[in-house]
Amino acid sequence: MLDFRNLTWQDKDTCSRYYQASPVHYAEYSFFGLWAWQHSYPIEIAETGGTLCWFRSGGPLPGIFGPSGNWDAVTDWDAELSHFKPGDVVYDVPAKVREILNGRDNLRFTEDRDQHEYVYRVQDMVALKGKAYAHKRNRVRAFLDGYEWDYYPITPADFGEVMDFQERWRAHRMLTMTEEEVASLADEDTAIQNALDKWEDFRFMGGMLKVDGKIIAYTIAEELDPENLDVRFEKAFPEYAGSYQAINYMFLKEQGTGYTWVNREEDMGEPGLREAKISYNPAMMLEKYQMEIL
Prior knowledge:
The chain is α+β, with helices and mostly antiparallel strands. It is built from 10 helices and 14 strands.
């Protein structure tokens, strides 16, 4: 059995070491991705021999998931799998781990499309060239030509203003949301505040668009590694035509061109979110699987 313990802030260096050793950097497994939502999805961690670690989630979506670490360096997968018993299910298993373990009679893998992470070429998102991006170009142009706007990188001096915007944005959204969706937004507010509170402890960057001196859109992103950027939070007032497309474009144009890839995370099976993410023509999907022990 895995020896789980509660994930705490003191595990940051440990989790980061496993994460950086991973052959593929999924946004879900960065320390921020694990820690920032502890208030609603408490996480436990279990290490196995110094090469891999596994996680267990509580809250609304309980279960074991992972692993994080250098999958290619594991010399005894039988020992790793001995921690599980028939009937156990491991969630969000990276595609490379599935490739390594595929073919074993005691394992069954099921693709979890809702949890795949969308990855795009930064240059494609900035250039917006060709017929495939015509609609995005038009939406960006509608904003840039239609409003007197300013773009600024987010600094700690702006945090109060960002949270004021977030409160206005959430109040606007709540008018048409279910009780469950409202609770989810409150959880997200806490995660955003966690990001601002620990801004200096992560490789964060962000940008905001202002019209008439007020924030109407912002992005907060995390550097996963020197080539990969992850968009953690992105909000805009949709009544400003093209605002979502414009903040995506402006942030990457002004602050993201030093990176090759930008990860925009999973769509969680939400039809509207899936349509929006597909419309940007992802260069690749970071696939995840459920692994059932037979």
